[in-house]
Amino acid sequence: MFSLVQLECFVAVAEELHFGAAAERLRITQPPLSRQIQLLERELGALLFNRTSRRVEMTAAGQSLLPSARRVLDLAAKMAVDVRRVASGAAGTLTVAYTAMAAQSALPLFIRRAAEDMPDVTLVLRELVTTDQMDQLVKGTVDLGLLRPLVARPGILTRQIMSERMVAAIPAHSHLAVPTGPISLLEFDHERLLMYSPTEARYFHDLLLRLFAASGSQPVVIQYASQVPALLALVQAGLGLTLVPESAQRFAPEGVVFRDLDSTSPTDRLNIVHLDVAWSEESANPVVAKAVEMLSRPETTEE
After folding, report:
1. Are residues 72 and 108 both part of a single domain?
2. Sign of the torsion angle spanned by Cα atoms 256, 257, 263, 267
3. Do residues 24 and 150 both lie within one domain?
4. For the chain, does the N or the C end have fewer beta carbons within 10 angstroms?
5. Are residues 97 and 57 in the same domain?
């Protein structure tokens, strides 16, 4: 099979119609150039040039080969550029999993930054709860996860990228929705509580247990759900109250009132939720490192 070097030599001679000029263009001596042309002609079984002491002319076979040779060389050059871009993380595909709340906070900023800094990277987005994200990261079917901190998994690296506070989400017709200003967790005592799933939303489930235990409040759990939007829908229906990250106010349904939690309470030190980016330390995707750096950059006022 002929080589790219042979095609490059052929195109140079075909365009210069002079072996000396073609050799100078390729920065080689004339004998190796002539040798490459002979090898190509032998491989193809056709004479590509008519040579005399005064001139070089392409044969019909050479004229037929020239357009295809140019396309092959152009394709090879583009392929090399594409491979280098993928290897450097400037191009490729990145599969990003995210929680429903991350879709309202970290994800939009990341998508904007990726469009600006990695325009040739294709993002594949998948909404998954944190536990499912961890499973997919271990399997290698997800490159990055935007998730809540959980017990560490071997081989999975994490970095905190965001923190916020929890706020109370209350049905608009509730007596607790009328006052303005912060609300104490003690006011949840014996109220109907919409709770996070202990399996699919363990991070928030355990956080609420700690908050209410520390405050001495004992609300009555009447329903479990795994995602914040589902809990807000239940609040909207008037079934009870819950606590959600403050960023949930960005997509609040009608009929839901939000109140900050009392920051003067001793339990306030517990009122913080984190969002992490997670990835496999064995990931072979070169885009991952660049994406993690992008997610770790603080948000500026311009953004």
Report:
1. no
2. negative
3. no
4. N
5. no
Nearest Cα neighbor of 95 from 283, 273, 267, 303 is 283
Is 201 domain-assigned? yes
* Distance between start and end Cα atoms, the chain: 54
Distance of CA 169 to the CA centre of its chain: 31
Where do we find the tokens 């991952």? Answer: 288
* Residue 17 CA to its chain's centroid (Å): 51
Same domain, 259 and 172: yes
* Residues 237, 230: Cα–Cα separation, whole Å: 11
pLDDT digit string (tens) for 200-253? 899 999 999 999 999 999 999 999 998 999 999 999 999 999 999 999 998 888
Backbone angles phi, psi at 114, to 5 degrees: -65, -40
Here the tokens at position 52 are 């005399």
pLDDT above 60 (res 303):
no
69 and 170 inside one domain: no
Which amino acid appears at position 105 of this protein? S
303 domain residue, yes or no: no
Q: What is the pLDDT of residues 98-139, one digit of tens each?
A: 998 898 889 999 999 999 988 888 899 999 989 899 999 999
CATH of residue 84's domain is: 1.10.10.10
Helix axes 19-26, 30-44, angle to 10 degrees: 100
Structure tokens given for 288: 């991952």
